[in-house]
Design brief:
Number of helices of chain B: 4
Distance between the termini of chain B: 70 Å
Structural class of chain B: mainly beta
Number of domains of chain B: 1
Radius of gyration of chain A: 18 Å
Oligomer: heterodimer
Radius of gyration of chain B: 22 Å
Helix content of chain A: 10-25%
Number of domains of chain A: 1
CATH superfamily of chain B: monomeric porin ompg
Strand order of the largest sheet of chain B: 3-4-5-8-9-10-11-14-15-16-17-18
Number of helices of chain A: 1
CATH topology of chain B: Porin
């Protein structure tokens, strides 16, 4: 039994840095929040570092129209952080859809909403 | 009551002791590995150990300790094979004054293929064939000498596609399985000789075909935080998935000696999901006298090998060397 436990411990020790899937850790505006004034950008923080070329964000209004002012960018100094600039947002509900590729090549997707108050 | 209840109890234990449990990500939804039934996930993982303690439904009832492990390996992205040995300790009625039994149950393997996956509706379905290899375990703990084949359908459905007016319900998800266990033999005949009268006694036990079915209802705090509303709760709370599992076995044919009573347990519990592992603990509440005589407990430590060894052990054997991914929005 000891040798089995030792073998398993060795295997996990030899795994090196652990990466794992990139899940959404937090966001600004926060998931499900109502904000005033309207945000200038959406910032997402993930639980793992991202591959910039294959990671993206899209923000849409209630009619399904895109409200981004540019492309999503992964922060070079903190590759768990990705942001996208927004157009001037009137009050309403907005949906943020993200799709990322973590540095260990796991793909994950997700979405959430926030509101801009009057 | 049956002439000898141990074989029946052992059959039930064997059928209920499946330890192949997976986890799965479908769109926003993370389906954790579950304990009482298998979920539809196809991935690389290691469940070690799974420990359960319960009291059987025999007359007289006895305590049973099971310690099991399960290793699952993807061959392709959608197809995996798993192996699951279980070591059992049976504490015989009468406690310490009588001998119990200990040893390995028959080894089980599971071939599972993901049939369908829809990110938008958080729906996934898989099909599997579980094989219990007869004669690979110790007869003292009830391991039979014949194989048992169990084709099974698995599904998972998250409720993230509910309208915004039902936001409170969106973290809910259900999973389920429907399997049909087919023993390799229809009956086992045992001949014994009475030492006093020298008369031969023939005991015939018919081995039933059994419908294995079950479901889970789970509420995902990770889902609530990342997809519905971030309430600013402590990180520990945000990693919990309260869950209720139900697992049943219903003999449906060849039931002359087994009877047709459905047995099973309902398991309320909670799963803690870490970055590369999860820990789960559940109570096991028997649904009737034949299912057990007291509430048991089951716990499991489970490792996500696809996250721990993403470039070696944790990826399919036959997969693209470079996972190119594809931008969702046309870049």
């Amino acid at each position: 039994m000891r040798s089995i436990i030792a073998s398993i411990a060795f295997l996990f020790a030899a795994a090196g840095p652990v990466f794992a899937h990139a899940h959404l850790d937090r966001a600004n505006p926060a998931v499900g929040s109502t904000v005033t004034p309207a945000p200038k950008e959406v910032v997402l923080w993930f639980t793992n570092q991202l591959e910039p070329a294959f990671s993206s964000i899209e923000v849409r209004n209630e009619k399904g129209a895109s409200v981004q002012a540019g492309k999503a960018v992964v922060d070079r100094s903190n590759r768990t952080r990705m942001s996208v600039p927004l157009k001037s947002l009137p009050p309403g509900s907005y949906k943020v859809m993200w799709r990322v590729l973590s540095v260990d090549t796991h793909r994950t997707v997700g979405d959430f909403s926030f509101r801009v108050g009057p | 009551m049956f002439k000898n209840s141990w074989p029946l109890a052992m059959l039930a234990v064997t059928l209920a002791a499946s330890t192949a449990r997976a986890h799965e990500i479908v769109g926003n939804r993370f389906f954790p590995a579950t304990l009482a039934i298998d979920d539809p996930g196809v991935t690389d993982e290691l469940a070690l150990p799974t420990v359960s303690m319960s009291k059987t439904g025999d007359v007289a009832s006895f305590k049973q300790l099971d310690i099991s492990g399960e290793f699952a390996k993807r061959i392709t992205e959608d197809f995996a094979i798993s192996v699951a040995p279980t070591w059992s300790r049976l504490y015989a009625p009468g406690g310490l004054t009588t001998n119990g039994a200990r040893g390995f149950q028959n080894v089980e393997t599971l071939l599972k293929y993901r049939l369908f996956k829809n990110d938008e509706h958080e729906f996934v379905m898989s099909a599997g064939l579980e094989i219990e290899w007869g004669g690979s375990g110790a007869q003292g703990v009830g391991a039979e000498r014949f194989n048992v084949y169990t084709p099974t359908l698995y599904f998972g459905k998250g409720f993230g596609d509910l309208p915004a007016s039902m936001n409170w319900a969106r973290p809910f998800a259900i999973t389920g399985q429907f399997g049909y266990s087919i023993p390799g033999v229809s009956k086992v005949v045992t001949a014994t000789v009475d030492p006093d009268t020298l008369e031969q006694d023939i005991d015939t036990e018919y081995i039933p075909r059994v419908f294995n079915w079950g479901a889970t209802l789970q509420y995902s705090m990770p889902y609530l935080k990342s997809a519905v509303v971030d309430l600013g709760l402590p990180d520990f709370i945000n990693r919990l998935i309260p869950i209720v599992e139900a697992s049943f076995q219903t003999p449906v044919s060849n039931t002359a000696t087994s009877g047709t009573v459905t047995t099973g347990t309902i398991n309320p519990g909670v799963i803690y999901t870490g970055k590369t592992y999860q820990f789960a603990i559940e109570a096991q509440i028997p649904v009737n006298r034949q299912s057990g005589t007291s509430v048991g407990v089951i716990g499991q430590l489970h490792f996500y090998l696809d996250d721990i060894f993403p470039n070696t052990l944790g990826r399919p054997i036959f997969a693209n060397n470079i996972n190119t991914g594809r931008p969702m929005f046309g870049r």
